[in-house]
Each structure stands twice: as C-alpha cells, then as structure tokens.
Amino acid sequence: xxxxxxxxxxxxxxxxxxxxxxxxxxxxxxxxxxxxxxxxxxxxxxxxxxxxxxxxxxxxxxxxxxxxxxxxxxxxxxxxxxxxxxxxxxxxxxxxxxxxxxxxxxxxxxxxxxxxxxxxxxxxxxxxxxxxxxxxxxxxxxxxxxxxxxxxxxxxxxxxxxxxxxxxxxxxxxxxxxxxxxxxxxxxxxxxxxxxxxxxxxxxxxxxxxxxxxxx
Length: 216
Prior knowledge:
It comes from Micrococcus flavus. By secondary structure, the chain is α+β, with helices and mostly antiparallel strands.
C-alpha cells in the first residue's frame, strides 16, 4: 500500500529525524566500543536488570506493559560524549528485552515541550529522561519517561501529552560482561515509530552498527 503525502516526512523532518536518530544511537551504543573484558569506559556500563510492571496497561496492547510481572532485561546507562567530571553531558538509558526489542531514553525535561528537547546533565544528575519522540499505540501517541533513583528506575507513560503515569520499575543488578547492540528501530510489540522517526532509521542503525562491531 502506498503512503499518502501526509505520511511522508518533509525535508526538514528527515534532517532532524536523522540527527535525533544519530544522537540516540550514540547514547545507547557508545559504551560498547570498549571490549567486554576491559575496564568499563567512563561513558557507561551495561547491567543485568529486571523490568517489573506494577500498573498494567492492557488496553494499550503494549506487550511489555500489558500485564503485571517481571522480565529480565539488559540495561545500559551512558554519557554520550564521555566528558570528565564535573563537565555536563547528555545522559542515556537503553533497555533490551529478551526478544531484542529496545527502549532508548535520553536526558530531557518533562514538560509538554521540554520532554522533546535534549538537556545536559552533570555526572550526579542523571534524570529525567524520555524517549524524546512519541511512539504510536492503538490508543494514540505515547511518550515514555524514566526517573533514576540509585539502582531503581521508574518508568512512566504519557498518553497524548497528558499526565505522567507510573507504570513499571527497572531494578539494576550487577554489571554484565557482554557487548550488545541496542537497536533503536525495534521497540517492544505494540509500540511503533511515526513517519518522522522513520527518517532516522537508516542513519541511526548504520551508526549503531559502526560503533558496536561484533556486538550481539
């Protein structure tokens, strides 16, 4: 089926989408440049973690939020540019589920406008983070946010720019001796990127592959 002109991103949207895709790919994957058996790079670390849903959202058809329960995941926290303390940097959080689906978060604000703007963070100020752009569900557009408190991360949703709803927690465990790639093009089942984000697919995935050679 051919797409209508309204589904095709404009030239400015393609440019901006490509830029955002590159930023998220770096935030999620840059720490994997370091071989897994070397000391962790200052830009980030990968840990075993548990995704625990406490406020199910079955009507959304988002598989990872539909029912209460726990799922093992991999989590990577990162600083995009690896600047030394006390310099601020862009913070990132990436989650990879057992089926290789991924959610990527970057440091932003939480207001209706600021949640879509990248924000610098000092090393001791990680959150808040959001998915930066909304994803599509059967109910409409949804943004996901993350609030970090030590080794616990609260995951929230905002439907159509509405109030944030606390849905799940991620419990960060021990460091994982693995090098993995977090694919920004493969969100969990029930979530889909818009045509705007589709403009970033090629550049973002190509960049993720270049900066994570040999990753799983």
